[in-house]
Each structure stands twice: as C-alpha cells, then as structure tokens.
Backbone:
C-alpha cells in the first residue's frame, strides 16, 4: 500500500510551522529586550528587590500592629527601627565576642603557622628553612610586581562595598514605604490599568507576594536548621565562639552557595587556630555533612512546599541562576522561578475551559422534564 504526500496539507503544515516559528522568535526578541532593559536599570531594580524581600520578612509584624489600630506610618516606623536594631544586634553578637578573643585567635594563628612549618620540615616533605625563606622571598617579589593590579582590585572592592552600602540604605527606605503604603498599591495599580488587565495584574501580583513570603520563610527555616546543627557540632568538638558562628551561619543562609562557604571557612579556621588540625578536620566533616543535607534534602523539601515547586526544579533553578548571574543569580533564582510558576498557573486558569457539569447539562439527547418551568424562549413564543 503506497502513500502520496498531499501538497495542500504539506503547504498548510509549512505555513503553520513558519507562523509558530515567527511568533517564538518575536517572544525571544521581546525577552532579550526585557533582560537588556533590566540590566540597564539594575542599580534601581536591585535595591527594589532587596527592599521587597525585607518587606516580606517584616510584614507580619506590621500587619499585626495595624490590626491593633496603629496608624500605618507609626507601625512601619516601629518595625523599621526594630529591624535595624536586630541587624545591629546580630552584627554586635558576632563582632564583640570575636574582638574580645582576638588576642587568643592571633596567637592561635601564629601557632598554627609554626606547626605547619614544623610539619613541612619533617618527613615526607623535608622542606628546609632556606627553601621556605626562598619561597617567601619569591612570593614577596611577585606581590611587589603586581602592585598595580592589587591597587585596582582594592579600588574595585571599595567601590563594591560603597555600592552595597547604598543599596542597603535604599532598600531600608523602600521597605519602610512598602510597609506603610503596601496595602494601597494593588488598588492603585488596578485603577491605572485598562480593561481586563485591571483584574489580572493585581491578582498575579497578590499571588506573587504570597510566594515571596513563602521563599523568605523557607530560607529562614533552612538557616535556622543549619545554625542549630552546625552549632551543636561545634559545641561537641569544643570550638570557641559557638554562638557567633551559629548566628553567622544563620545569616549567611540567605545568600546561597557563597554564604555557606564563607561561614564554613570561618568555622574551620577558628577550629584550626584554637583546637588544632584534628578538630578542624572534624568540624570540616560536620559542615560538609550538614551542607549536603541542606542542599540536597532540607532546602529542596522546604522550598518546594513553601513555593509550590518540585525539589528538582529548585535545584535546577539555583544551578542555572548561579551560572548566569553568580551570587545574585543564585539568590534570586528560586523566587524568580516561583513567580514564573505563579504567572503560568494563572494563565492556565484563564485559558482553560471548565468541564461541563453533567447534572446541570442534561445534553441534547435527553428527554425534557414535563414538570419543569418553561424557558424564556418558550414563554415568549
């Protein structure tokens, strides 16, 4: 049995393929233009994003105060001041114990370097003092040769710190205004949009707000879990500064990947200079186990429940965000993916056709009920 291609169906399929390809190309072009515009406005968008995340963290307290009858401006002011006090307290809780034991830590660093030097001079390395001195002189010469690049790096680092301070200040001010005027934003937005957009956009924005709140709460749960487990491990091993290290672990959990690495490095370093290499290796093992459990078990499970995303989607989103935009991409990958899921679910709801109710729609082949009331058309006839 032979088949012959239909020229009419072939041309129709090609036309449909060309139309779909053109529409996809237009969508990709618009997405690229949107990303380019966001990149140009990043100095404004980044403080707005940070302020929005801080608002989701502090809004429950503000809402409680407003329900008690507090004026919006007073409630927002009190919550903002409390947030700043908590932030300063966290910094003090980390810095004050470290400063009080800075002398012991400095002596531990010197002793650790001396132990490392004695270990390197023995078997199997057998590195002599003259070789160590030569390596030190070579490193000094390289540093002197690269003074210009080091100055450039320092200037870049200072600029980054200044930009971070400016971003933090703007984010706090934006948080205050969002706490004060946030409930009036969606009604205002509905009045500015025409037609159906006046309903669709505020609805998606409200669902996105709930999603961001779930993201911040899940990050707090993950950070608390890390802080408790790592703090217990440090306490069992006998490492000093357990409480500051636990607080640092909790705070760094809000910055994916780099935050955990930084907190773990600090904990291992303090264990090395205070307790020796054996306890440092034990602490390193504890941190690796906890971070593996957090990254592969706890965080996907908690975030998938709080954001309505599958655990695999959370892992892929963090990986993709980190490869595209580094630390910022890792931080924003999961909430952005959750917001896309919110918009997609709402679009599916609007485009889906509701299933007919078999009880209310008897169908054309069923017999009419003789006791039923006449329809409007029948009565007018």
Residues:
């Amino acid at each position: 049995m032979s088949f012959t291609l239909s020229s009419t169906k072939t041309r129709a399929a090609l036309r449909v393929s060309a139309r779909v390809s053109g529409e996809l190309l237009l969508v990709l072009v618009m997405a690229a233009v949107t990303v380019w515009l966001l990149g140009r406005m990043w100095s404004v968008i980044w403080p707005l994003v940070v302020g929005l995340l801080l608002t989701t963290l502090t809004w429950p307290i503000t809402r409680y105060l407003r329900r008690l009858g507090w004026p919006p401006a007073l409630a927002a002011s009190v919550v903002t001041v409390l947030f700043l006090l908590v932030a300063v307290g966290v910094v003090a809780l980390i810095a004050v114990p470290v400063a009080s034991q800075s002398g012991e830590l400095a002596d531990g660093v010197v002793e650790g370097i001396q132990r490392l030097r004695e270990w390197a001079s023995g078997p199997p390395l057998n590195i002599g003092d003259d070789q160590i001195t030569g390596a030190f002189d070579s490193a000094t010469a390289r540093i002197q040769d690269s003074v210009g690049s080091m100055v450039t790096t320092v200037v870049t680092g200072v600029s980054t710190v200044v930009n971070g301070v400016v971003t933090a200040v703007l984010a706090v001010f934006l948080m205050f205004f969002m706490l004060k005027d946030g409930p009036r934003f969606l009604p205002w937005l509905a009045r500015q949009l025409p037609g159906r957009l006046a309903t669709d956009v505020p609805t998606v924005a409200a669902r996105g707000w709930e999603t961001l709140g779930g993201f911040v709460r899940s990050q707090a749960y993950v950070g608390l879990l890390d802080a408790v487990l790592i703090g217990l491990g440090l306490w069992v091993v006998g490492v000093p500064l357990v409480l500051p290290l636990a607080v640092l672990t909790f705070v760094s959990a809000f910055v994916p990947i780099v935050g955990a690495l930084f907190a773990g490095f600090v904990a291992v370093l303090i264990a090395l200079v205070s307790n020796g290499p054996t306890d440092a290796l034990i602490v390193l093992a504890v941190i690796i186990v906890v971070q593996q459990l957090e990254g592969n078990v706890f965080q996907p499970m908690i975030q998938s429940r709080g954001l309505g995303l599958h655990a695999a989607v959370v892992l892929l989103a963090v990986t993709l965000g980190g490869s595209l935009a580094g630390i910022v991409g890792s931080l924003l990958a999961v909430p952005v993916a959750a917001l896309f899921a919110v918009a997609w679910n709402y679009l599916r709801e609007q485009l889906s056709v509701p299933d007919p109710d078999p009880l209310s729609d008897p169908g054309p082949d069923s017999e009419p009920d003789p006791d039923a009331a006449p329809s409007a058309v029948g009565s007018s006839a």
